[in-house]
Every structure is written in structure tokens, then in C-alpha cells.
Amino acid sequence: MSETALSMHDADARRIRRRGVAGVLVATALAAAPVLLASRSGAHLPDLSLVLAAPTKIQIHLTAAISALVIGTVLMIGVKGSALHRTLGWAWVVAMATTAISSLFIHEMNHGAMSWIHLLSGWTIIALPIAVYAARRHKVSLHRRFMTGLFVGGLIVAGGFAFLPGRLMWRVFFG
Description:
Elements: H1 3-38, H2 49-53, H3 56-77, H4 83-103, H5 118-136, H6 140-161, H7 168-174
Helix pairs in contact: 1-6, 3-4, 3-6, 4-5, 5-6
């Protein structure tokens, strides 16, 4: 590869990394909004006993979602295409699939029925294999769009709903 091509690749990588960092910062701000709003209503140290008392399906869901959030943040900020990215990427796919599948068994908030938020789970179950297929076929742009969408929509937006009043995460942090 010529020096010019390498420098163009480096510039593209830096631009993508900056977008990833910006995306993580925006996502963090969106996720922190309920926390900041609630701090006026008497936030306290998390009451983790509520998580331990929750049904196993909710504990699995929460553990997988937190794992996906941590791994996803590292992936968004880190260098793309490396062996570490691929390894963490597979871990993230497993964590996201576990989060989505486990959510299908959680019906406590809707009188035993599924709710509209389960549509995000269905989309995640469909989109993950598409995103992996795109990566395996070196369709980087498609892979990036799907994975970024899953990170923001499937984790940040859906996770924000977990902090609404009356939900478990609200009670853990603000109840």
C-alpha cells in the first residue's frame, strides 16, 4: 500500500474514532439525563438488594445489558478491525443477544403481556446476524450502521426506559 493510501486510511480511522467517541458521549448524556433529573428527587446509593431480590430472568437481562454497554463503549472508542475488536465484538454480540432474548421473558410491567419495547428485542435478534454477516463480508459501512444503531437504540434508548419511575432501575437508584 502506498504512503498516500496509508495516510488516507489513518485519517479515515481517526475520523471514525472521533465519531465513535462523540456517539458514546451523546449516548452517555442521554442515559444520564434521567439520573440528573432524578437527583433533584433524592438520589441515593444504589440499593443492590433490589437487584438480588429480582427474578433470575431480570438478573440475567441486567447483567447482559451492563456487559454489552461496557464492551460496546470500548468497541466504539477503540481501533476498528483489530483482533481485539473482533474478539470483543463477538462478546458484545453474545451479550446483546442474551439481553434481547432474556427481555422476551420479562412481562412484569405490562400485566403479563409483551409491550412495545419488546419490538426492540425482536429487531435486535434480527439485526445482530445481519451486522455480523456484513462484517464477515467486509461490508464495513453496513456493519457500522447496524452496530451503532443497535448500541444507541438497543442499549442507550432502551436502557433509558429502565430508569423511568416505577421500574426496577429507578427503584435501585432513586426509590
